[in-house]
Amino acid sequence: MTSYRPQLETACRAASLAGDHLRAHFSGRLIVDELSAHDVKLRIDKECQQIIRNTLADDWPAYSFLGEEGGCGGEVEWIVDPLDGTVNYYYGIPLFCVSIALRVHGVTQLGCVYAPMVGEMFTALRGEPALLNGQSINVSSRDRMERAIVFIGHGSHDQSGEEGIRRFAHLSARVCKIRILGTAALTLCYVAAGRMDAYVENSIHLWDFAAAQLILESAGGDFRYTPRANDPLTGSVIAWNGRIPLLSVLDQI
């Protein structure tokens, strides 16, 4: 069996370098490349992606690169979100992360998610336990919806918004608390670490969850992704600790 530990070490180094860059400019003056009603594109996104791309290519020059800020896939590809939680970052909210995954022939072999403001590095290698700063993590043992904390996300500028609001209303009456973090990768890692219990999102991209999906599953969680018919890189996600009856509750909507 091929070991991807050397590649994971490179991914962690790349995530750390990008995280250092983000932390150094946090709450500083930012260059906005594009500003819309519900989103913002920052120059620092592209800067971090270039830092990551250069670091990965130095060690693994033959691998393809697919990132939020461009690139193309291949049989062996890095999947990168250089700044997951851009709006949070733009508003000075310290909830954001760097996400890097390696996919080989369609199977994710490693995942690395780094939250630079708190120094938390979530990692996983396929077939091995999920780790937080080198220590094993597991999903929560909670099995009752009324004790669960669930993350909800939904689009605000496409057809996913209405369905997401229905889910929000339905679940909020059946769980302990509802939360929205604004960063998919970090949300999934929080479920992996047992801090929260589930995550439901109507519109998400591959680079948002590729690394964190493996981390969650390696921590004992369940993950379901339904791609859009016209865009396999975008779809909906249901992720949970594998214990609460989330699917049966969602089926009631």
Describe this structure in words.
- The chain has helices at residues 5-25, 43-59, 86-90, 160-172, 184-192, 206-218, 246-250; strands at 32-35, 40-42, 64-67, 70-72, 76-84, 97-104, 107-115, 120-125, 131-132, 135-136, 149-153, 177-179, 198-205, 222-228, 231-240.
- The mean pLDDT is 91.
- It contains 7 helices and 15 strands.
- It is globular, with a radius of gyration of 17 Å.
- An 8-stranded mixed beta sheet has the order 4-3-5-6-7-8-9-10, with helices on both faces.
- The protein folds into 2 domains: 5-136, Fructose-1,6-Bisphosphatase, subunit A, domain 1 (Fructose-1,6-Bisphosphatase, Chain A, domain 1), CATH 3.30.540.10; 145-250, D-Maltodextrin-Binding Protein, domain 2, CATH 3.40.190.
- With 253 residues, it is an alpha+beta fold.
Furnish the topology, listing elements before pairings.
Layout (H helix, E strand, L loop, with lengths): L4 H21 L6 E4 L4 E3 H17 L4 E4 L2 E3 L3 E9 L1 H5 L6 E8 L2 E9 L4 E6 L5 E2 L2 E2 L12 E5 L6 H13 L4 E3 L4 H9 L5 E8 H13 L3 E7 L2 E10 L5 H5 L3
Parallel strand pairs: 3-5, 11-12, 11-13
Antiparallel strand pairs: 1-2, 3-4, 5-6, 6-7, 7-8, 8-9, 9-10, 13-15, 14-15
Helix pairs in contact: 1-2, 5-6
